[in-house]
Each structure stands twice: as C-alpha cells, then as structure tokens.
Design goal:
The chain is 70% helix and 0% strand. It has helices at 9-32, 39-45, 50-56, 68-80, 88-105, 109-118, 120-131, 134-145, 152-170, 174-187.
C-alpha cells in the first residue's frame, strides 16, 4: 500500500478548477469591467458549469479575491514570528509597507487595483474582507503582548493597522501614506505635542 505525501488527486483537481475560475474571471473583468461580465461567461471560460463555479465562489466579488486565507495567516505570522527585538508595531509597519510596495511593483497589480477602485461593489467587498481579519489580529496581538484577549489597546491597534493598509492602497502615494499613519501610531499626532 502506498501513501501519498501531497494533496490527493481530488484536492489537486479542485485547486486547479478554483485557480482556472479565478484566472478567467480576472482576465474578463480586466478586459471588460466587473459589471459587464456575467457568472455564466466566467464558468464557460473556465469550462465548468455555473453550479461548479458557485461551489468554489459564493459571490461574483469573491472571484476577484481568492487568496483570503493566505492573507490572514500572513498577518498573524507577522506578529507571531517577528524577529527578536522587533516590536509588534514595527512588524506591522514592515508588513504593511511590504504589501504596498509589492502592489506597486507587481506587474498587473496596477490594473487590478484600478479595477477594484473603480468598481464600488469590489471596493466595498475588499474593505469588508480585509477588515474581517481584525479579530484574528487582535487575538494575535493579545497573545504576543500578554494582554487579555479583549484588551481595548490590542483591538485598537488591530483596527488601525488594517485601516492603514486599506487607506494606503487607495492613496496617490501609498508608501508615504502608510509611513505617515504608522508614525502617528508610534509617536502620536504631532499637533498634540
């Protein structure tokens, strides 16, 4: 009897279908706009039924943001696995700046961000999706700092760090925006000194 060391055939096939659907959707959305592409067209482009598409993606918006689980794990790892001597605020700053810079440097990211920003349904969905990581980040901050899980400071930092990333992604100068926001988190508002 042999044992498999990686994902089985069914999981690989499911992952390939998921990827094909997300890729087809993004290609069509970038070509024609989110509102001008139907779910049936996406399913046909990926050579699957609309029922299969809906099993993988419950909403049309979710086709655009298909790596949400990886994002949350990255956020938690940023806090949990930070280098010795690095504060949680510095780790979150570095994570946010890396995301912003990656978005600016990645081929196709500009077109993707433009699609999200010019489509109100996608913009709202992305913000809700991004901010849903707030509780997980709050818990990670509490664990790492030894604070109670319901600590208001951890809740505030989780909220502000995530909002900073959201604000930076919409800004004309994302890096400067993220740096300014984290400077305020780190040192307070200059006018109040």
């Amino acid at each position: 009897m042999t044992t498999e060391t990686g994902p089985g055939r069914r999981e690989r096939k499911k992952a390939a279908t998921h990827r094909a659907l997300a890729d087809a959707a993004l290609r069509l959305f970038l070509e024609r706009g989110f509102d001008d592409v139907g779910v049936r067209e996406i399913a046909e482009a990926a050579d699957v039924s609309t029922t299969t598409l809906q099993k993988h993606f419950p909403t049309k918006e979710s086709l655009v943001f298909d790596r949400d689980g990886d994002v949350e794990e990255g956020l938690i790892a940023t806090v949990r696995d930070r280098a010795s001597g690095t504060s949680v605020l510095d780790a979150l700053r570095d994570y946010t700046l890396a995301r912003v810079r990656l978005g600016a440097a990645t081929e196709g990211a500009s077109a993707f961000l433009d699609l999200v920003h010019r489509t109100p349904a996608l913009s709202r969905y992305w913000h809700r999706m991004w901010m849903r990581h707030e509780d997980a980040l709050r818990r990670a901050l509490a664990t790492e700092t030894g604070a109670p899980e319901d600590d208001p400071g951890c809740a505030a930092l989780a909220h502000f760090a995530l909002e900073t990333s959201a604000l930076a992604m919409r800004a004309a100068d994302p890096v400067a925006t993220a740096e300014a926001a984290f400077a305020i988190l780190d040192h307070g508002w200059p006018a109040s000194r």
